[in-house]
Amino acid sequence: MKQFLIRRLLLAILILFGAAFVIYSIIRLMPADYIDVATASIKELTPEMKDNLRKLYGLDTGIIEGFFKWFSKAITGDLGESFIYKKAVATVIGDNIWYSFFLNLPSTILSTLIAVPMGIIAAVKQYSKTDYVLTAIAVIGISMPTFFFASLLQRFLCMELGIFPFSGMVDARADYQGFMKFLDLVYHFTLPILMFTILSIGGTMRFVRTNMLEVLNADYIRTARAKGLSEHKVIYTHAFRNTLIPLITSLAGVLPSLFSGAMITEQIFSIQGVGFVSLKAIQSGDVPLMMGFSIFSAALMLIGFLLADIAYAMADPRVRLS
């Protein structure tokens, strides 16, 4: 296991380097850079003035030269300074990351706790009315556009019933502190968490159902039933455990999603999370912030896959033995 982890870590570093170069190249090849966006309304600027501004912000170099300048600082922990926030990229991400975490963690836990039993029930009762109803719910959740579903919830629960606030993170008219501020955050985050949970159920539920159907048709399941084991033990002890490997694979991306935010959801509900900040960086051409966010997300993704590999060995003895 130790040698395996060392190999995976070295491979992850190589992948991260390649991902960083590709991401930087794509960002620098964008039609408009930060200077074009920031000076779009200033007609008096000459091309020479714009060139001087690009030199000031380090945008006058080629892609390869610019990348290695950024990379030489990044390996020391210096991700640069955000153009639009005028603060260190690490500070900008650190200031906003926990809002995204507070949004994604509850919805991820809730959607998993709901979707996994739904998938098991749908598989056990294949082609029944229950299966059709659960499958229909899953398909609706998968197919529903985020902005459309959010608009429906805002119209019904916010505008008509007045149960939740329309957007924002805190009540601007109240100066809450301590625990009251936390409760105010919970109140404002409830609706986006509800939306995120509903839209996330379908994919996991369908995944669990598909894998459970494959396992339930296996020979060892028929053998377990022939031995007289109870249906509950057959399903939850023998069948479900063998669906954990693909389920762990699907959940490998949970770690980065917890911290990397949800751009559309945060934008709709005006939640100042990492997704909201990164979308603003993309729109403004903020190269350091885009690079910092992208590398941060890529590193979390690699860590997620590494943890998934470790979890494989815990879930399946065959992986440990091999």
List keywords for this structure.
0% strand; MetI-like fold; 322 residues; 16 helices; mainly alpha
Query: Helicity range of the residues?
Result: over 70%
Number of strands: 0
The 3D shape can be described as: globular
Number of helices: 16
> Sheet with the most strands?
none
SSE diagram, text form:
Blueprint: H1 2-28, H2 34-38, H3 47-56, H4 63-74, H5 89-124, H6 129-143, H7 146-160, H8 179-216, H9 219-226, H10 231-239, H11 244-250, H12 254-260, H13 263-268, H14 274-284, H15 287-315, H16 317-321
Helix pairs in contact: 1-4, 1-15, 5-6, 5-8, 5-12, 5-15, 6-8, 7-8, 11-15, 12-15, 14-15
Describe the structure.
There is one protein chain. This protein is mainly α and 322 residues long. It has one domain: MetI-like fold. Helix content is 75%, strand content 0%. It is built from 16 helices and no strands. The longest helix has 38 residues, at 179-216. It is globular and about 85 Å long. The N and C termini lie close together (10 Å). The mean pLDDT is 84.
What's a concise summary of this model?
Helices cover 75% and strands 0% of the residues. It has 322 residues and is an all-alpha fold.
